[in-house]
Amino acid sequence: MAEKKQQYNADQIQVLEGLDPVRKRPGMYIGGTGSEGLHHLVWEIVNNSIDEALAGEATKVDVVLQDDGWVTVTDDGRGIPVDKHKTTGKSALETVLTVLHAGGKFGGGGYKVSGGLHGVGISVVNALSTDLKATVWKDGFEYQQNYKLGVPVSDIKKIEKTTKRGTQISFKADDDIFETTKFSYKTILDYLRHQAYLTKGVQVNIKDERTSQSYGFYFEGGIKSYVEHLNKGKESLNEPTFYVDKKVDDVVVEIAIQYSNSFNEQFKAFANNIFNPEGGTHVVGFRSALTRAINDYTRKNGLIKEKEENLTGDDVREGLTAIVSVKLADPQFEGQTKAKLGNPEIRSIVEKVLNEYLSYYLEENPNEAKKIIGKGLLSARARLAARAARDSVIRKGALEGMTLPGKLADCSSKDAEKSEVYLVEGDSAGGSAKQGRDREFQAILPLRGKILNVERARLDKMLANNEVKNLIIAMGTGIGETFDISRLRYHRIIIMTDADVDGAHIRTLLLTLFYRHFSELVLAGKIYIAQPPLYKISAGKSSQYAYSDAQRDSIIKAIQAKKAETKKAKSSEQKITEDKISADVQTAKDLAELAGDVQAEAETGGGGGGDNQKIAGISIQRYKGLGEMNPEQLWETTMDPTNRVLLKVTVDDAEKADSIFNKLMGEEVSLRKNFIQTHASSVENLDV
Fold it and tell me: Pick from 241, 201, 199, 244: which is nearest to 220 by CA?
């Protein structure tokens, strides 16, 4: 009998009303239900308060993380309107809290400039909270209204007279929606710092009642202070920092520029305080004007010969730290994430402002101008040298399917997605890894000694270093202008170094190389760190591996507990022919023996004091290098996909990552010394 077809008619069409769509598909509105989505709730409320500051109506924003999971955001702005809305028939407060796309940012003069999430922000927070309390101080009175799961539990109430003004939103995220409802003090602190830099003259405070931590920000200099913060620890080439804040046709353009002695560019673009990682028209205008203004000054003052080529955009951006921030009435972002600004008129406005005011700056600061141009000329010479080196080293190498490095033990698979390469410290470990690997998909590239510190080297010097050159050729992507991630030969690049100081240094040098010159590989999740075991713990014929001191101690205790249990079981099975006193004596002996095991562990510190130790029948071997492992052990512990532990290298905070690399690998010794002194006490497994 034929199966009856299900009818598809109006009955199957589901209509979600009010805030139901948000609870049904939260990811559409906040990007996800993990930690990032959770914190997006805070950003939406904070952004509303910052919009008040941008409108010149608020001077202070306070964020409080409470003990019971509540978050409270308070500002001293105009206060959300509480009068009745003519369309909804509800108060304006209830309207913006319960109706999607309701707000003061769609015309009507409420805000000339705003960020926010297309007017859905505060209603989305309400929808995804178990409880929300809104307090408004406006027109001499305090008003309150409470909500549960986005639904008001009462009408808006007029509480009392007051001289205060502003808005306070307190909410408790719904743990049925989010994977976690634990807010991160550090994450919110970093976000508030950025907002304070971008909104000069506003006081931003955070207090964490869970830990009694608190902090406040106030930057009169705005993004000028931000640029100087990003360049902290680097040698500045231009003092004072270039800064312009100009309004053109209702568009505010704010730009800050400072050059340093580093070889890397740090650039951030914002539109209405929203970070635009993919740039946009304001970035195009900035780069065009920067290159033109510097080349015009260079030609005008005869700093390059007539027949010489102009400096390129890459030349003038070497060592650049800059921020461009625009504020406009109707930003057109590409995509819900607002990663890229699309307003075409912004390009010409930014270009005009920067070209005019940077030209003034260079004329008025000739010493700084010569340093900036000198930096660009050095970059141009290095670029030409690097191009020649790259042409001879790379284009004749792996990129054209020619010779791979001799030390590379390649895998047989040609499928890059299934292939991986281990970057191994030294020939000894490389030999073990080559013998222990799965030749089908695992390649091995031994590295001799410590590679070049690329934090202090230009591309031409890098390509003259054999270890760096071999690594670039093995990966197949090229570098610099010729970089192409689609030609990557291995989709997992695994750093495998010894668990000692030298191994950590080599790992840091490699991470510096990847972060500075192959950042796309890091962002794409292609870089990993292998975790070889620190200890082999043997008892009888069985062995276990420990990857930390804590795991070692846990394994030892488990073995001792099992031994004690076995002793006890054997003791109970024996026939006792003596009287009860004899039995008590035997039990006392067992307890004394067990106590001796525990005492032995305490005396040796759990077995971490030397290369090989024994604790009451337990053998502990400390591995100091990968070369100490035979191929079978290396495969079993570190290379077998079913057993191994790999750490994926990610960048959660590019700004902080840049600062760390500058401290650890830059030229400023005092920064490195302070870092070591600060963190020395927390270092484990330090071999001196």
Answer: 201
Cβ neighbours for 329, distance < 8 A, ≥ 6 positions apart: 112, 113, 250
Catalytic option among 44, 94, 498, 628: 498
Does any domain span residue 384?
yes
Least confident residue range of 370-374, 477-481, 493-497, 556-560? 477-481
CB 459 within 8 A of CB 480: yes
Angstrom distance (rounded) from CA 105 to CA 113 = 8
239 in catalytic set: no
Looking at the fold, whether 372 and 420 belong to one and the same domain comes out as no
Catalytic residue (one of 131, 460, 500, 549) = 500
Please tell me whether residues 425 and 468 are part of one structural domain.
yes
Please state the pTM of the whole predicted model. 0.69
| Continuous H helices in 518-548 | 519-523
Q: Give the tens place of pLDDT for each residue, 525-545.
A: 999 999 988 888 988 888 888
Burial of 400 (0-12, 13-18, 19+ CB in 10 A): exposed
Domain membership of residue 628 (yes or no) is no
481 tagged catalytic: no
With beta carbons less than 8 A apart as the criterion, state whether 417 and 502 touch: no
**How many Å separate Cα 353 from the centre of its chain?**
32
The active-site residue, picked from 425, 467, 597, 628, is 425
Q: Confirm whether 44 is a catalytic residue.
A: no
Annotated catalytic, 498? yes
DSSP string, 589-633: HHHHHHHHHHHHHHHHGGGTSSSEEEETTEEEEE---GGGS-HHH
